């Protein structure tokens, strides 16, 4: 070796040895850290399980938990299961039986390596995937939970020991979650919510947790965006945990309900518990329609409702609504009904709607247009209605399942058919003894009043005692009106104020004047048979003037 090379090694050989030593030390350190982490994983896993058991007072299982120190602390867990709160021995669900309250496919988080003993490791975001919460019915929690189940002892750590590792979490982000609310009520289906995304904040306070979530619901199909607070978590019965917030529901397709359609937007506020919520809100549906008919009207509502979170049953207390130019209120219940076989017959599942409806400021044409394929309604006027409404579940079209039983009054009524309104005008003028004004009177100036009890079933309106009043005459009718096709079938009598001679008028009236007394009935001048048949588009209106019969003498 030359003196030059010897000089080089004397000057630089130490550097290589140092570099090699450092590389070896780093490799050994990596191995030691990796081994240390692998040995620490069971401890960290036990700490997570113990913390969850203490928080939920329940049995917790975690299939796997792994950590890494590549670019900070990375942690990942899989197969987390949390059972409902432990019950008194002999009453609750034994270990190994029953369904978990919470299932989680996997979770992960990252934290910078800034650990100091006694100081929590700060985690900005915990990511959750595949979260499922299955909340048992209230009866499951009627007995007090036992103490000491889970917690530090379950993790092999004595109570009061100082934790070497704890975590401080800013936010939890969850995708693909579901919430299933079970019920005690026989035959009732559980209520299921698909939660596309939820963000949780204020995790470590032990109080209410903040949330921001997107919930996908099947009926009406759409996504609810909601923000609020949940908790504090009630260990003895999670269903009693407080819940409050605001929601926004946009572009919901009502066509997912059989028989109706339209795009609904809704906003509101809710508060209460998971099982018992109070909701105040409003809805806007500019194109509400019955799919069987197709005419659209604007429908807006404001409502106060109680919701049973276990099955979705809703009590409206009340709804304040405007349909077109008509205002009405409704209150009652919307109850979910499962499919069943009763008396050998299949009963179809769905929603059973039972409401009391009060229409106080309305136009009859709004309701007739909604239940017609034509924009040409048969009647206009101011209407008030008080009725019981019932829509049972089933596969038949909505107009066939809809049932009404109530009373209505129609004021300032006018038929849109020139033929019918013309005959009403004739009836009124003859009833007043003014037949000579038939050609000079505008039929639109003759307004009517009618009122009656009514029933709607199978798409047919039944009017058992319709009182129809026009100036000069009172008409008493009974009959039916078909929503499908507008079939008319009414019979009755028209009682005229004028005597028969004045009602007929002209020279024929003069001939009848000697017998006026014989045609008077029940204190009125004349009683005339009347009949309405045909359809809404082609009505036939008959006044039996030629069939007038004198009152029989005793």
Structural descriptors:
8 helices, rod-shaped, two-stranded antiparallel sheet, single chain, disordered C terminus, alpha+beta, 24-stranded mixed sheet, 554 residues
Question: Helix/strand-derived class?
Answer: alpha+beta
**Computed CA radius of gyration, to the nearest angstrom:** 39 Å
Biggest sheet record: 24 strands, mixed
The strand count comes to 26
Average pLDDT figure:
78
Q: Roughly what fraction of the amino acids lie in strands? A: over 45%
The total of helices stands at 8
Task: Give unreliable regions as ranges.
Answer: 12-36, 87-97, 145-162, 549-554
Question: Helix share of residues?
Answer: 10-25%
Can you tell me the overall shape? rod-shaped
Distance between the termini: 157 Å
Walk me through the structure.
With 554 residues, the chain is α+β, with helices and mostly antiparallel strands. It has a domain at 407-547. It has helices at 3-56, 151-154, 364-370, 398-401, 418-431, 500-504, 506-512, 516-519, and strands at 60-68, 73-82, 102-111, 121-135, 167-181, 191-201, 209-217, 221-230, 242-253, 260-261, 263-273, 276-290, 296-308, 314-323, 326-337, 340-342, 345-347, 350-363, 379-391, 403-415, 448-457, 460-470, 473-482, 487-496, 526-535, 539-543. Strand 6 and strand 7 form a beta hairpin. The radius of gyration is 39 Å and the shape is rod-shaped. The relative contact order is 0.06. Residues 12-36, 87-97, 145-162 and 549-554 have low confidence and may be disordered.
